[in-house]
Amino acid sequence: MSGAMAEVSLIDVSTYLPGEPIGADYYAQFAESDELRDNVMFRAPKFRHHVAPDETAVDMVERAAQRLIERHGRETIENVDVLITHTQVPDMAFYGEGGGIAHRLGMRPSWVLDLHNGGCAAFVLGLRMARQLLSTGAGHTALIAIAQNAAGQVFDQPGVRRKSQAAVPGDAAAVGLVTVSDKSPILDVECRTYGEYAGDMTLAIDPPRKWWQAGPGEGCIGFTETKITKVLARGNRQVPEVSFAVCDRIGLQPKDIDLFVSNQPNRVFLRNWREALELPPERHRDTFDECGNLFGAGIPVNLDRAISDGQLKAGEIVLMAAFAHAGDFAGAAAVRWGGRS
């Protein structure tokens, strides 16, 4: 491909929440006192959803894709050129879900890419990759598929669900359809890697062992007061930083964007980011009390809700931003929404 790069658009998103909502009382029956019980990071949402015991990440993505198929036709999905995936807990340790998703949805994509390191910012990273590939001639259509399935698998283990961290996550899946088009253009994307923080998110098992070794004890996230303080500081800084960078390049003040959609680790981050961008609550969409921390699925789930509810209208600009893990990655993307056909 020569000359100017083609314009690329986020055409649509579709999502899936597994099972019935699980209330906070579910965790109350298991809760034990721990040193982090009162930490702001672990103030539980009212509800969340859990993946079913035998439900795979591929199952979740297939279910999330159904509304895209209904709105755009099965042929559109089957003809996807670029498949970009992220799964919080892969169904198989040695490879991602791309092959299984492609087979289940009848695709023969030229590109299959797994964004395991994207974490809570995986949807933004997926937009950047899809935009880059499609704009330079790698194909016409991309599908970004996100599966967050840790809540019902990792955090609901009998030994883990007694901890304060267990009540916060929820499960969901989402897909985003990206095409060469000027209908709903991706205006700009900023992604930053903070390699000095890689490894600060750890898996804690008692007694200690590697995650793949057999033995007693269940794995959970290795939180400490010191680590939490660092993560709060990093997240509070990084999400506004990447958001301001994108807004600066598209010539718009953050306070003037029509809708802000972020990941949603807890209420403190949501409030702090909104205040940093000088946005009122009604222009920052979240589903924290309905769904909990959705990790990488948080942005597309909230974007889908905002579109379906009419909160985001054709011609308006949505800014998406998130940080990942303990702060080793962050990203933001702006889209001028063209409406759902």
UniProtKB/TrEMBL annotation:
Record bears the keyword Nucleus: no
Keyword Transferase: yes
InterPro entries the UniProt entry points to: ACP_syn_III_C, ACP_syn_III_N, Thiolase-like
Domain spans labelled Beta-ketoacyl-[acyl-carrier-protein] synthase III N-terminal: 117-195
Entry keywords, A to Z: Acyltransferase, Transferase
GO MF term (any one): 3-oxoacyl-[acyl-carrier-protein] synthase activity
Positions of the Beta-ketoacyl-[acyl-carrier-protein] synthase III C-terminal domain: 247-337
BP-aspect Gene Ontology terms: fatty acid biosynthetic process; secondary metabolite biosynthetic process
Protein name: 3-oxoacyl-ACP synthase [Rhodococcus jostii RHA1]
Organism phylogeny: Bacteria, Bacillati, Actinomycetota, Actinomycetes, Mycobacteriales
